[in-house]
Amino acid sequence: MSSTAAATKWVYDFAEGSRDMRELLGGKGANVAEMVRVLGPERVPAGFTITTAACVAYMAAGDEPAELAGQVAEALARLERVAGKRLGDADDPLLVSVRSGARQSMPGMLDTVLNLGLNDRSVGGLAQRTDNERFAWDSYRRFVQMFGNVARSIPGEVYEQEIAARKRERGVRLDTELETADLRALAERFQALFAEHTGEPFPQDPGEQLRQAIRAVFDSWLGQRAADYRRINRIPDEWGTAVNVQQMVFGNKGDRSGSGVAFSRDELTGAPQPSGDFLANAQGEDVVSGVRNTQDIGTLATLMPEAHGELMTVLTTLERHYHDMQDVEFTIEEGRLYMLQTRNAKRPAQAAVRFAVDAVAEGLLDRSAALETIDCDRLDALLHPTFDPAAEFSVLATGVSASPGAAKGEIVFTAVDAVQAAEQGRETILVRPFTEADDVAGFHAARGILTSEGGKASHAALVARGMGRPCVVGASELEVDLEARVVRVGDRELAEGTLIAIDGSSGVVTLDDVALVEARVSEHFQTVLEWSDQLRRLGVRANADTPEDAAKARELGAEGVGLCRTEHMFMAADRVPKMRAMILADSEHERRDALAELLPLQQEDFEGLFEAMGERPVTIRLLDPPLHEFLPAESELIGAIEVARVENSEQLAELEHTLERVHALAETNPMLGTRGCRLGVLWPEIYEMQVEAIARATQAVRERSGPVPHVEVMIPLVDYERELELMRELVERVASGQGLDAGVDYTVGTMIELPRACFVANLIARHADFFSFGTNDLTQTALGFSRDDVESKFLATYLERRIVDRSPFETIDEPGVGWLVRLAAWVGREARPDLKLGICGEHGGDPDSVAFFHRAGLDYVSCSPYRVPIARVAAAQAAIAHRS
Amino acid sequence: MSSTAAATKWVYDFAEGSRDMRELLGGKGANVAEMVRVLGPERVPAGFTITTAACVAYMAAGDEPAELAGQVAEALARLERVAGKRLGDADDPLLVSVRSGARQSMPGMLDTVLNLGLNDRSVGGLAQRTDNERFAWDSYRRFVQMFGNVARSIPGEVYEQEIAARKRERGVRLDTELETADLRALAERFQALFAEHTGEPFPQDPGEQLRQAIRAVFDSWLGQRAADYRRINRIPDEWGTAVNVQQMVFGNKGDRSGSGVAFSRDELTGAPQPSGDFLANAQGEDVVSGVRNTQDIGTLATLMPEAHGELMTVLTTLERHYHDMQDVEFTIEEGRLYMLQTRNAKRPAQAAVRFAVDAVAEGLLDRSAALETIDCDRLDALLHPTFDPAAEFSVLATGVSASPGAAKGEIVFTAVDAVQAAEQGRETILVRPFTEADDVAGFHAARGILTSEGGKASHAALVARGMGRPCVVGASELEVDLEARVVRVGDRELAEGTLIAIDGSSGVVTLDDVALVEARVSEHFQTVLEWSDQLRRLGVRANADTPEDAAKARELGAEGVGLCRTEHMFMAADRVPKMRAMILADSEHERRDALAELLPLQQEDFEGLFEAMGERPVTIRLLDPPLHEFLPAESELIGAIEVARVENSEQLAELEHTLERVHALAETNPMLGTRGCRLGVLWPEIYEMQVEAIARATQAVRERSGPVPHVEVMIPLVDYERELELMRELVERVASGQGLDAGVDYTVGTMIELPRACFVANLIARHADFFSFGTNDLTQTALGFSRDDVESKFLATYLERRIVDRSPFETIDEPGVGWLVRLAAWVGREARPDLKLGICGEHGGDPDSVAFFHRAGLDYVSCSPYRVPIARVAAAQAAIAHRS
Q: A558 — phi, psi (to 5°)?
């Protein structure tokens, strides 16, 4: 159709496109073209699309490609023929909209110009043809305003001030109360403003208007707002945007006209009845802006039954055509239905799950395709209590959504207070600047955790997610004064005991007594999970340290425990003193005595865990954290010593001894210090006690109840082959002393969480039955990012400066950490083809990371119990995507 | 020669071997065989070697290989024929020694039995044949003792007690005062002891004696002492040891007999005159044991001119044959010279250098071969003052040799005291438990540094090495009490001001006023360095932060500065307050004001450096360490605040503000926190100031003196391509503002010191003119080892348990860190073939690591100035080794 066959085709009529041409025509252009194909040209206002390639060429050259003007002129001529009207015609002008449309939807980010084609002459023609002078002048006023704002960056306030002034002058409140003369005066004033700001007259030539509007859309792609949106949504700058030029239709031509948006199914629940909003005698922007109260789409059946019937048919047709729930925009002009846009509907988790199940039942989709319509990231909302969606409340502060779910309770500032309150049956929210190991008891006792510092990977966030406790961190508007025991927010002071509510899914904090809605795995969700289990290849386990965690994990479908952190068992109030005695021991002999006291407790822990898991596998990691984590903080001790000195207390010597030990164990970079298997090498008696406890628990549970889990003993932080060799010797020696056989009763493996280990994984695999990738620590070491420090100190700036697009602790860093995982998997299996490979970092519950682990050939992922359902679906989606 | 052709040959006559059979025959066996070939059979006592393979088979099976006994018997028969004597013969017995001999020398580690073949009957024959009854019984007594000790593990004390008792009984002091009857009684008593301890009679059958002695040598390979030696010297356990059975010759047969050791050149200086020790009428063990005062080898010329002449000829012959300086053992039996052993001589650096130069002059070796005879690790001693080798002193304590060179001075405990003392012209040693950034000023002022904690990679060691200050760390016998201002060693208390001396090359600490000997690059060393420069491919630069360092680096042959750490410039006393003002600034505006004050100082620093380096390249790293390193410690501040509060001081508010900032900047793992280019991203104004200072300094020096270095601006700690892109933009923007052109006046590159960066080095290389591997940090992250913590906390145990054989901060960890370097070099050059590659970690001065960097294809290494000569030689050796 192009006049210059050899030149690039920059412009496509709607009738030439299809949904497969999204890259070239953008999402909107491709969908409009597709609607022309599916619904027929009479259902879609005619128009054409200028390709994203033209935008790319424009960005590269700083100017439109040479042939573009000619191609636009030709397309416009064709449009005029189809419409039977001419742009700028003084009697019956063709009006067009000029809209952006990138490959991927960027709502509100790019610019739009409506009613283009009006000028001082054609406005009269429009008035005459529509027999509505006010409508014509309002349209012209809007166009002049929008064009100046969009095409020449004249600030919106400039226009708003003029309108406000005019309303004051006329003594009216609403725009709709302005009369034709007012609107005419405004259109003239706006043209004068245009000339003032640009030094040029307002373009009366519609061709020139069109040229400038197209440039404006191209330029809007490069604007800050769009750039920010792309960064957050990981849309490449290089894509560019298409421009759609479409004949205007008018929903504001009287009672047989109107505009609306509709979903092919209920937008909130997914139930198979269309939903949507409609406004009679209104344009699309009125529906969206919320100036007038919209009506439910159902009322259209009464008001305009014919159009309603057509719309229902269109929705069914589009849904069947796209095999997905649709979100459409439409306009009815004097009884005639025009479809302006369609796209796959964004939907909340509940609706997504319902649609997937119904779509299979209706034969619209097969199970794989149905699963692929679900956005895993949203499923979290189904697994935790939330604020009642109907509730109204005022936001006190907003922080980072660190662990999903909503909770409310009285403000407490210490773990001790939280525990006391829980004993008295009071519900609390633990509020702190940040949290440490000492606070963990409070996590159990409180309903939720709120901190003023930290990010998604802070201690509070990690522990809360692990326990499934709602948590908001980094709510920086709060100033938590632990000394004064108050929270300050601006001028306000909140005392201990004040009721506060948090929503860990949204990061919102409020003082209102919002109703909470409990979560449950609905029948539809259950169906989706069952299908996922049939389709996925990756196993899904849970990270669980207690029988309660394990029971929750089983309930949510975990096939085993992928990580039991034995140190969390020592954090409990009755264990800490014994653990400290062990650490403070001056000789191996004393240390062994202290360990002997810990042994029965540890055994009890394991028995509970084993009974909860039945015959499922349980991976137990031997002690990992640096020992000083179990000791009181230096500043706390110094204070206690001062007091003891003044009071001449008997405890002075003991306190001083503890301080000495704290100093001896202190490390500059504890993350890179004496932890993991280094503890086992230095003090083998600690690991010996733990293995003995595992072996005894296995025997006890076997005698008592029969089935016992397959235990996988996991050695953390291995760098060298020899470390694992030594620790494996230790495990086998102690276990066989308790009558357990390696390979039969248990296996021995290692965390792979250091870059060196990935390079020598073939050597390490000689002594390992399994690897479990510790992607948290692997991320810390591969990137040189301290999890505790990075998010609070510089991640925000890194996101802003577009160095990263999300936290590497949230989604695995494929170029670095991902390659280390691939490498270790590859050479590990080379040395030992039956090596079992899992991953137990936070990434195990992140859908994008799960997809990577599937592709990398791992056997299973392990995540916190509440992420298990998400991992199950994500694993199925990965299998489907990777298969096709 | 073997009777069973199909069976493995486990035994080789000396005449069958050669030096090329070291793997099979061990070092001693191969060298003895070689001597037979070179000097003729009459010069070497006859014998045979049981192979290392036999030892390996013995270790695997727990028993000798089946054919071994027969092969030994056959070899023994041949030996008896050659010797004309028979083992156990009652009239004229053949006596043999049984000695170990591994592939690589393990002095004193494996066991030896002498005089084997004696029994109750043959002792009489020996007495008769030698006409020396005392000699015969002393030989027998020694054999019974040695055999029981070596072959059956009877403790040496058991025998010593018997000898002591006998001496008491006889009222004599020396062994030599015992008479024949005593010796005879002892031989009998020792046989009885043997029976008591083993439950078996002492074997009278010489064949059985031989069998047990051979087993004993095999077993000694597996003993703890040998295992420890192998670990330290990285000798594989799998090698096993050979066993040499050799006819005994006797240097104690009268005045025409004797034993000695000799070197083909002066063992200390390398001067071309043989040196050595000799004892007339004595056996080899008397020479070594130091019981009698030995005579210089020169005296042999007078005493036994013929044997002396033969020895001189033999030394020349062996040196020419082995093309290296020889270290031999010999015995003269009644005027006849026997050579017992020869090997390439270990030699101190001075001798090594002298030999290399002389050997080339003499035509013995070409330059490459001469360079290969030098042990680079020893060269350090030539570059630093040492304790006078002739001085006698008593050792107070021993620590880790952290930075070479000797120093003495008064004990001081703080940097301030060291600075004050220096101003008064007093020399000091800074003594601390450990050091921190605040102490660096004291490093400049003191003559040496001594700490009770830390290892080779501790702060004290690193900074001291960087400055070339002698340093001993981890002298754990010292208890440094900073409060009481004393050092305790056992019961002793050393006050401030006490004279103390340290030798950083040996780790020795003494209170004696030992004389120090200054180092200078000798003429011979200079020649070796010049040859090295001709032969090496790797460039050698120095890490230098000051004009003084740079001048020293040039003097020692550095071709440029590979790393100027700009932060060290801010540690100086006049800079710290300004730096702190910058860090404490509450706004960008205030921060810029503070930076403006630092700018001229920083510019001055660079001018000095540029003038010192002339036109050589200088790599300047922009600010790297976390900012809190420049602030006072928390505990110090809290104390100061207490005082200020009590005194109602005006400084209180400022102190509290500082403490707040210290808290805000505090990080759990500073090594993985807000440092490197993260600082530049967060606070670009800091890097902008630094670049401006570089640019201004370049212009100023150019105007003043003409030649300026090629400046390489280096961005530290890059993870992401985008980080470098942003920082490069910053550098180019600021530099061009000062009239400098990228690529002409300077280049921009990055440190590669994080694992992630290695994987994406191809992307990073797009924005880099050069990479400099920061192998210190790369080791920390790849291994998860905090440099500050690892060596002090668990490295010792890791060495002991054979997990590592040396610190990975000393020699590069090839399997992990090495692969990361290779990877980054590979993909970096793939993206940019002209990418310049260097390394500026501590490893740049370690010979083994330099060899790796050569093989990995790097362009240059950069190390502390005092390691430059070592790197030059190591680089040449690497080129020679890699070429062949």
A: -65, 140
- Name the residue among B491, B493, B511, B492 with its Cα closest to residue B502: B511
pLDDT value at position B301? 93
Q: Do A789 and B667 touch (CB under 8 A)?
A: yes
CA-based R_g, chain A, Å: 33
Q: Are A264 and A316 in contact (CB under 8 A)?
A: yes
Of B673, B726, B784, the CB nearest to A754: B784
DSSP letter assigned to residue B161: H
Identify the segments of chain B with pLDDT beneath 70: 1-6, 108-110, 231-233, 288-292, 437-438, 456-458, 462, 465-468, 791-792, 884
- Amino acid identity of residue A782, one-letter, is A
Is A670 in Cβ contact with B672 (below 8 Å)?
no
The residues of B carrying an active-site annotation are: 459, 840
User: Could you give the ipTM of this predicted complex?
Assistant: 0.83
Other CB atoms within a 10 A radius of the CB of residue A705 amount to 12
Half-sphere exposure of A302 (CA within 13 A, CB side): 6
Count, in order, helices (H) and strands (E) of chain A.
Answer: 36, 33
For helices A868-883 and A523-535, angle between their N-to-C axes, nearest 10 degrees: 50
CB-based contact A722 B803, cutoff 8 Å: yes
Contact (Cβ atoms closer than 8 angstroms) between residue B217 and residue B100: yes
> Cα A749 to chain center, whole Å?
33
Give ∠ CA A564-A841-B752 in degrees, rounded to 5.
135
Contact A803 B667 (CB under 8 A): no
Q: Mark whether A568 is an active-site residue.
A: no
Query: pLDDT category, A575, cuts 50, 70, 90?
Result: confident
Q: Is B243 exposed, middle or buried (0-12, 13-18, 19+ CB in 10 A)?
A: buried
**Residue A336, SS3?**
strand
Q: Which of B759, B775, B807, B821 has the highest number of chain A CBs within 10 A, making it the mutation to test binding with A?
A: B759
How many Cβ pairs within 8 Å bridge chains A and B? Answer: 170
Name the token pair of B451: 């700490």
- Given A55, A840, A854, A863, the catalytic residue: A840
Kindly report the pTM of this predicted structure: 0.84
In B760-846, alpha helices (H):
761-764, 775-783, 787-793, 795-800, 819-831
- Contact of B671 with B780, CB cutoff 8 Å: yes
pLDDT digits (tens, 9 = 90+) for A349-360: 889 999 999 999
Question: In Å, how far are A530, A814, A824 from A853, measured between CA atoms?
Answer: 21, 10, 13
- Cβ-contact A333, A257 below 8 angstroms: yes
Residue B648: other Cβ atoms inside 10 A = 7
Under DSSP, the state recorded for A15 is G
The pLDDT of residue A442 is 86
Distances (CA, A) of B61 to B55, B57, B65, B747: 10, 6, 8, 63
Contact B815 A760 (CB under 8 A): yes
CB A509 within 8 A of CB A806: no
**How far apart (Å, rounded) are the C-alpha atoms in residues B298 and B308?**
8
